[in-house]
Design a protein that fits this description.
Layout (H helix, E strand, L loop, with lengths): L6 H8 L5 E4 L9 H7 L8 E8 L3 E8 L6 H7 L5 E3 L2 H8 L17 E4 L8 E7 L2 E5 L1 H8 L2 E3 L3
Parallel strand pairs: 3-5, 5-8
Antiparallel strand pairs: 1-7, 2-3, 2-4, 6-7
Length: about 160
Amino acid sequence: MKISKTNAARLLDRLNIVYQIHAAQVSEDDLSAVTMAKLLNQDPAQVFKTLVCRGDKSGIIMACIPADQELNLKAVAHASNNKNVAMAHLKEVLPLTGYVRGGCSPLAAKKNYPVYIDETAILYEQIFVSAGMRGVQLELNPYDLAKATNATFAALT
């Protein structure tokens, strides 16, 4: 399967950040990050999904958490200095980020939103995040991802 470069991959190229790109055939019926981890033969704890949230003070933020975990909205609120954080509505994700459900990347969104990465990412040499297309993942060092997105590591689950 030929993989075309995504905006997220081009951003990493511009920043001279080393990454690998992986692709797997996904079904519209199951776009879960856990399924993506299985398709890549990776531990779901190492494959991070990107969730779009709205803080009462900060506005839109992105949270990257392991595929097999649930986002703790109170933890995200604490990390981002908000009183309350809610998930953005699914219909808002594309207009806000330029990305579709199942292909949301913390890299190269329409705007540079604050990014928070679950602190478990630093336990791994490499993690996986969406490249901005369904079925396409970027494998990179978590510190490089944080550098590229100006992210903060925090307990999010």
